Each structure stands twice: as C-alpha cells, then as structure tokens.
Amino acid sequence: MWLARLLLAAASACAFAAGAGAAPLTFTVNSPADVPDVDPGNGVCETVAGNGVCTLRGAIQESNAHDGADTIVLQPNVTYLLARVGDDETALNGDLDILDSVTITGAGATTVIDGNGGALGERVFTIYHCIREPFQNGTCTTGSIVATMSGLTIEHGYSANIAGGIYNGADLTLQNCVVTANTANGLNDFGGGIYNYGSLKIIGSVVSNNVSGGHNAYGGGIYNQGPMTIDSSTISGNVISGSPGEGGGIFSGGSGMVIKNSTVSGNSAAIGGGLYIGGINVTVLNSTISGNYSIGDGGGVYFFVGTGGLYNVTVAQNRANADELKADATGGGVFIKAGATLYAANSIVAGNVVLIPTAGKPILDPDQCSGTLSSLGNNLLSDIDAGHCTVTGPYNVATLPLGPLQNNGGPTKTHALPGGSAAIDGGNTAGCVDGDGAPIAKDQRGVHRPYGPHCDVGAFEVSDSIFLNGFEIGV
After folding, report:
1. In angstroms, how far is CA 7 from the centroid of its own chain?
2. SS3 breakdown of the chain: % helix, strand, coil, rounded to 5?
3. Average pLDDT across the chain, whole number
4. pLDDT in tens, 237-252
5. CB of 312 closer than 8 Å to CB of 280
6. What angle (nearest 5°) sits at the alpha carbon of residue 431, between those of residues 429 and 434?
7. Residues 6+ apart with CB under 8 A from 321
8. In degrees, to the nearest 5, what angle opens at C-alpha 246 toward C-alphas 199 and 281?
9. Average pLDDT over residues 299-319
10. Could you check whether the bond before residue 450 is cis, i.e. omega within 30 degrees of 0?
C-alpha cells in the first residue's frame, strides 16, 4: 500500500510540474469575425462553447491567458477587420493587446489585419513589455514578452496619442510584413506606423504611407527609442504633416540602430525627410536613401547627436526646402548638426539639391551635405558647397550619373551604376568593411562583393549576374 501511495504522490508531483511549465499552444483562426473568446484561459479558442469558431481576437485572448510562447495562425486572402469599440488592456475591445509571448503567422500580404481606425479610433496592436503587466515599465516580475509577426499586412490603425499601427514595448520581430496607411494624429504624433521603446527587428518588410499629424510630430513611418535593426526592407512614402515634423521615414534616438540592405525613399517631413537619427553605434550599411523631401534641413538624412556611420550607402536625389519657404535650409543629402559625428566610407552622396526660391522659377541648387562629414575614405560626392559643408579625410568629387530608383534584383529598389562610373571598383583597395571592420561581402541586392579588383562605391555592385525570382545566377 505504501508503495502505491508513493507512486501516486510522484505522479501527482510530475503532473504539477508539467502544468507549471505548460507547453505552447497553437491556435488556428478560422473566422474573420471580430468576436471575443467565450472563456479566455481554458486553452480552447472558440466564440461559443463547443462551436469551434476561432477568431483573431479570441486567439489573442487565449494566448494572453496561457503561459508560454503560443502560436496564432491566420489564413491567406482574408481581412481581419477590428470592430469592437472600447479601450482596455485585455484585448477584449479596441486594439489587440499582446500580454504574453506569441508568434502570429499569416500567409503573406493578403493576410490583412485592418485596424478600422476611422471607426474605432485605435491603433492595431499594443505589445506590452512585461507578461500580463500592462502598466509595468521597469523590471518585469513575470518575465518580458517576445513577439514575432510574419506574413501580415497591418493597416488602417489610428491613434490620437502615439503609434498609429503598432505600439511596441517587447522584443518584437516583424518579418515579411507590410505596415501601411496607419495614422497618429491628435496629441503626441509619435510613429504613424510604429512606435518602439522595446527591441525591434524589421526583416524583409515594408513600412509605407503612414502619417504623423500636426501635433508634436516625430517619425512618420517609425518612431524608435530602443535598439532597432532594419534588414532588407523598404521605408517609403511616410509623411509628417505638422510641427516639429522630424523624421519622415524614421525618427530614432535609440542607440544600437542598424539599417542594412534597405531602401528609404519618398518620405517627407519638416526636418530629416528620410531619416532623423542620433545615438551611439548608429549604422547605415549597404542601403539607399533616395527621393526624400524636407521643408527645412536634411532632405535625406538629419544626424542630430552622437556617433554614426554610412558604409557603402547611396544618398541620392533628396531635396531640402521642398516647399520653397525656408530660404536658409541646407543639406539636401545629409545634414550633420554641430557636435554630432557622422562617418562615411565607400559611399555615394550625389544628385541631392536644395530648392532656392527666386522671383521667377525656383532654382534647384546642388547641395550634398551640411555640417562636417567625417570621411574614412573612398567616398564620392558630386559636389561640395564649402559655405556650409566640410568633409574631413580623403574623398573625391566626381560626376556621378545613376540609374533610376527601381527593381534591379533583390528585395529592395536600388540605383544602378552606369558603365564608366567613377564608383565602379572605386572602393577601398583593402576591401569594403563595416564600422566594426567586418568585410561587406554582398551589395544591397545580395550580389557578391567585390566583383572585380575592388568593391564598388555605394549600395550597388556592378556584376555580370542577373536575378531570377530573387536568386542570383551567373551569365
């Protein structure tokens, strides 16, 4: 008898231990309706007991209540339209609140989560920092949240105070996602698309056509104040429409920011049309900054504080003073504020302008940089206005025609180098490297570097290779 009791006690202890470390669950959403779960925490996603109908909101409620990093699976060619008016931190109403670690997987851009912001007045997602502690911003007593979203379009969120699309305090990865047409407009218009104070990775994604309005506005596409990596992604068409209007594509004051193999294009703001950035260890690598606009300084890049670097970057065709109203605006390509240090190596700064108003037709005046650009060598500029731009270290001035910004292979658009360009084989003879001295073995598209005796300057490497369905093949 005593042996049977001992075995029963041991079995009970094992069962308790298994329950304490509950295995992750997978919730497959089979309904586009915005209906809550009937009993959050019972481990079954359904809107009525026994009906088997699982909604996105219901799956998030179940995941929030269940320990462990659960998975939510969404379907292709489905729009999940949010419809529940209200404001809480439980995902019952309004936006989708993430309170525990989760992976949300869609089937690509046709899996759409629509925030219906015009009706709800809410962003799409709020992802908190601490597990089931929505108001805890310090040390987490229950652990911190890790979230991954992939294969999704996140659109039409609206917030009157911070983050139109996604508010993130967690360790968040967005992979193969589109964050588009979200708006922050009302009080503090920080991050029309994304507001990040946690850790953020954006991979193979698009952040486009988001808006920060006219109230203390920063970061039309992304407002960042934590570590952030953007890889093989496009930040385009984002707008700040109000004051102070800093960072049309990205506003970032967070240290440890890296942008690589990416394109920042067609964004606009009062200052820093493409990027308004500062911090420590800020790196832009193998990327293109093109066709951005500012009302004031820094059409392409405004670097305001700290230390950063441009490595094999193409900064081209950006414009300062785009509305003709600020006659003293400078830095069509790059503006470096006094006291900040921006290094550049093996990079192109060309074809950028400042618009100068006149009595007749305004003049497009070549204007590549403003402030002091610290050259580490092998940089090419199409011209320098010595009245407001100083380049320290070795560099060259050359005529630098570029192909149009277009799909030249790879996941993002680039400017191709025409034959005979000074940029071809113009990189460091010892090899192009990043800020840590590591070799840059591929260009923005994924083409091998160097192709020839030396790597090419800028984000594009000329080669005898073409891309077929995204894969490089030799010809």
Report:
1. 55
2. 5, 40, 55
3. 91
4. 999 987 789 999 999 9
5. no
6. 135
7. 294, 295, 296, 327, 329, 354, 355, 356, 357
8. 40
9. 97
10. yes
Q: What are phi and psi of 12, to 5 degrees?
A: -65, -40
Which tokens sit at 356? 């100068």
Tokens of residue 27, six digits: 């919730």
71-111 confidence digits (pLDDT tens): 999 999 999 999 999 999 999 999 999 999 999 999 999 99
**Predicted local confidence at residue 315, as pLDDT:** 98
- Name the one residue in this structure whose structure tokens are 């240090």: 341
Q: Specify the pLDDT at position 475.
A: 32
Query: Is the pLDDT reported for residue 323 higher than 90?
Result: no
Confidence band (pLDDT; 50, 70, 90) for 326? low
Tokens of 59: 């799956």
Q: Which residues of 284-301 are buried (b: 16+ CB within 10 A; e: fewer)?
A: bbbbbbbbbbbbbbbbbb
Q: 388-414 in b/e burial notation, b at 16+ Cβ within 10 A?
A: bbebeeebeebebebeebeebbbbbbb
443 vs 414: CA distance, rounded Å: 10
Compute the distance between CA of residue 335 and CA of residue 328 in angstroms, rounded to an integer.
Answer: 13
3-state SS, residue 102: strand
Residue 71 to residue 401: CA distance in whole angstroms: 49
Lookup result for tokens 């984002």: 238
Q: What local confidence, expressed as pLDDT, does residue 237 receive?
A: 98
In DSSP terms, which residues pair with 310 in a beta bridge?
284, 344
pLDDT tens-place string over residues 171-186: 999 999 999 999 999 9
Residue pointed to by tokens 């594009």 = 460
